Amino acid sequence: MDRTAVGSRVGLADRATRILPAEPRYRGPVGFRILVFRYLAVAFVLLAVVVIANPRQPESAAGAAARPWDYQREQVQVEGRGLLNAYARVTVGATAWLARASIERQRDVLRLSLFDFLVGGGTADAVRRFRLSNGDALEAATKFAVVGLVLYGAMVRPARRNCAVAVLLLLAATLAVTRPHTTVDAAAGPGVVVPNAMLGVVERVAPGGADAAEPTQQRLLTQYWNSFVAHPLSRVQTGTPVLASAPPGKKPGVLDGLRKNVSAVNDWAVGRHGPERAFIATSALGYVLPFAIALGLLAMVAACAQTLLFLLCLAGLFVLPLAAAGRRQRGALIRYWLLPLLASIAVLALASALSFAVMRSADAIHAADEYVGVLLAGSTVPVLVAVLIGRRVARRGRDGRPGPAPIPGS
């Protein structure tokens, strides 16, 4: 047999048995949920960088309320000496700080878009100053671009859709440069409209009672503050919730009057009930902590959704003209802009609704706890005695129970 033929057969056998590297498989487009999660992650990173670089306070915004709410005028003061009173003072202060922080974050979500507040206004001012200082150059560049488009269309005769896209992009750039504040305000508007719309839905589904004359958000947040700060603070100061319903500006006067007329209230005010104060302060902190964490997380999610919504609305000015380019471009526009835009609106609406639900749940839990306290008032000692007697009787029954019968023949 020819050696060449034998060698070729051996080579074919080696190639047949050789383990070849696997060819890379084509991966399809990223799933929609993963895409939205990545968008939100990018929005979170951008928002974090902006907050660190420009830590302005939202309270100074133009949308801040002129008249302070009750929780802003509350004086959280706990008198008394000793370790237990100091612990109660610090714990009540931490409770008030957590409640105030969660309330402020909820107010910020409903009155402004944080990314727009930190970046949008300053960027619009910078663009306006640039346009005023370079007006002649920008006007000449716009005219040159228009003439260039006309000459290009007359000489090359491209597809009409390409010309339409170029003209629309030029108009979008001109609008962004000449009307920067209008553009930024239009992009930031949906981020505030959505949570306020959800607040209106909550008001229609579960309207308020006697305090329905107040705005819905103020009523919810005031109830939240009274439940977790005003009530325990009143108990620490007087031993009763008598100060919880008093206006913040009149509470010091009411407390002074009670201290002069009721000796028991004076004992609480000067700190002669240190153990009781420590227990009340600890229970108040334990109550508010999970709700404050939940409201803080929901406010963070809402702020990220607002940032993503702001960026997508701002980008829509430049990506919407691409819809005239063709079917493929329209498909990409729907997948990478329109659907994430709708998803950000849904996330913002869901976070806002859950925030209102958490506040309502917190108030309901506190009210249930108050009702249980009223029902058990005056009968706590008999209940404890009955529980102890029942446990002792059950233990005696277990101790006097006869053992298992012996097995016959063992």
Whole-angstrom Rg? 34 Å
Count every helix, treating DSSP H or I runs of 4 or more residues as helices: 13
**What's the total number of strands?**
0
Shape: elongated
Q: What does this protein look like?
A:
The chain is 76% helix and 0% strand. By secondary structure, it is mostly helical. Helix 3 (83-111) runs antiparallel to helix 8, helix 8 (216-238) packs antiparallel against helix 11 and helix 9 packs across helix 10 (263-270). Mean pLDDT is 79; it is low at 60-66 and 376-380.
Write a compact overview of the structure shown.
With 410 residues, the protein is mostly helical.
Summarize the topology.
Layout: H1 3-17, H2 32-53, H3 83-111, H4 114-133, H5 135-155, H6 160-178, H7 180-205, H8 216-238, H9 251-261, H10 263-270, H11 274-319, H12 327-376, H13 380-399
